[in-house]
């Protein structure tokens, strides 16, 4: 059996930054694929929610890349890695499903703008997406490496200009593999 | 950009998120009703793993509660009440549903979230 550790907001869009909730609660396109393929769903904590709160601004990676936020993420990573380790010890496959473009939960695409700061306004259309992991995923990755645990990654893609539900689904199915978990 | 959040969050025992064959699919009911889900740790996890996860869940519940989101508890989880107490939050109304209908009725009976009214009338 496989276990998908999913970003908090995929089960709870209430955790999103303001104006970021795509639906009322559960983001079903990702959850439906996981369940149809027979994967367990495990929800990770939202790194931004408890740290920066519900009234946080939209932010890029550089704004969250502080010593305090990394300490917070490492604490979360230890908690999540403990759960992942318990699954891995049972021989279960592990997939992390993140949020592409997120400064904290991106798995292959994060957001970056080294100049962003101060009064929260910037030119419309400022490019900010770049290859790489968000800060929490980076810390979790390091913790799992330290424990010798391997995993695959997939991401929800709403924030990307290229977002398409069918493509998002196909990519997830590809990561999960052809067979059942 | 329109924000679609419901301001309604359910703390949900693992077996309602990952039901055994023939078990109640609580996640499907909650999704259809527009509730967000905060999944509680699987009972099979070692106590220390569960304790760490519950502490993080409690901190997030605290933040939602401060902003007028409503909570319910679907099922139960040992250690949850203690984790919530540490952040000064009471255990929310609870149900142990035996059927999708029972869960739906319970959700429909909950009060509107104060945060929803605030979002709809930002000047009020």
Structure description:
The complex is a heterodimer of chains A (181) and B (124). By secondary structure, chain A is an alpha/beta fold. Chain A has one domain. In chain A, 36% of the residues lie in helices and 15% in strands. In chain A, the strands form 2 sheets. In chain A, strands 2-1-3-6 form a 4-stranded parallel beta sheet. In chain A, strand 1, helix 1 and strand 2 (40-43) form a beta-alpha-beta unit. In chain A, helix 1 packs parallel to helix 6 (165-176) and helix 4 packs across helix 5 (135-146). The longest helix of chain A is centred in the middle third of the chain and has 23 residues, at 67-89. The termini of chain A are close together. Chain B has a single domain (8-120), classed as Rossmann fold, CATH 3.40.50. Chain B starts with 7 loop residues before the first strand and ends with a helix. By secondary structure, chain B is an alpha/beta fold. The model of chain B has no long low-confidence stretch (mean pLDDT 95). In chain B, 44% of the residues lie in helices and 13% in strands. Chain B contains 6 helices and 4 strands. In chain B, strands 2-1-3-4 form a 4-stranded parallel beta sheet, with helices on both faces. Chain B is globular, with a radius of gyration of 15 Å. The A-B interface holds A 8, 11-16, 18-26, 28, 31, 40-43, 45-46, 49-50, 53-55, 76, 78-80, 82-83, 86 and B 1-9, 17-18, 27, 30-31, 33-39, 41-42, 44-46, 48-49, 52-53, 55-57, 59-60, 62-64, 67, 69.
């Amino acid at each position: 059996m496989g276990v998908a550790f999913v970003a908090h907001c995929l089960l709870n869009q209430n955790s999103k930054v303001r104006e970021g909730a795509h639906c009322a609660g559960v983001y079903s396109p990702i959850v439906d694929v996981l369940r149809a393929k027979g994967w367990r769903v495990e929800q990770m904590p939202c790194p931004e929610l408890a740290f920066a709160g519900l009234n946080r601004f939209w932010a890029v990676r550089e704004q969250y890349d502080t010593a305090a936020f990394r300490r917070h993420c490492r604490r979360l990573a230890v908690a999540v890695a403990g759960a992942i380790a318990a699954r891995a010890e049972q021989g279960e496959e592990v997939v992390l499903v993140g949020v592409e473009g997120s400064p904290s939960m991106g798995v292959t695409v994060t957001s970056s703008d080294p100049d962003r700061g101060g009064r929260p306004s910037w030119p419309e259309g400022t490019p900010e997406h770049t290859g790489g992991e968000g800060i929490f995923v980076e810390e979790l990755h390091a913790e799992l490496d330290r424990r010798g645990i391997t995993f695959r990654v997939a991401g929800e893609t709403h924030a990307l200009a290229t977002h398409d539900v069918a493509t998002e689904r196909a990519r997830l199915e590809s990561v999960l593999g052809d067979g059942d978990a | 950009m329109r924000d679609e959040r419901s301001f309604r969050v359910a703390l949900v025992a693992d077996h309602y998120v990952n039901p055994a064959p023939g078990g109640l699919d609580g996640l499907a009911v909650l999704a259809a009703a527009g509730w967000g889900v905060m999944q509680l740790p699987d009972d099979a996890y070692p106590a220390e793993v569960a304790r760490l996860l519950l502490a993080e869940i409690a901190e997030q519940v605290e933040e939602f509660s401060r902003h007028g989101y409503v909570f319910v508890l679907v099922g139960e989880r040992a250690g949850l009440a203690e984790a919530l107490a540490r952040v000064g939050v009471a255990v929310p109304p609870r149900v142990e549903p035996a059927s999708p209908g029972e869960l739906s009725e319970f959700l429909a009976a909950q009060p509107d979230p104060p945060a929803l009214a605030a979002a709809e009338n930002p000047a009020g």
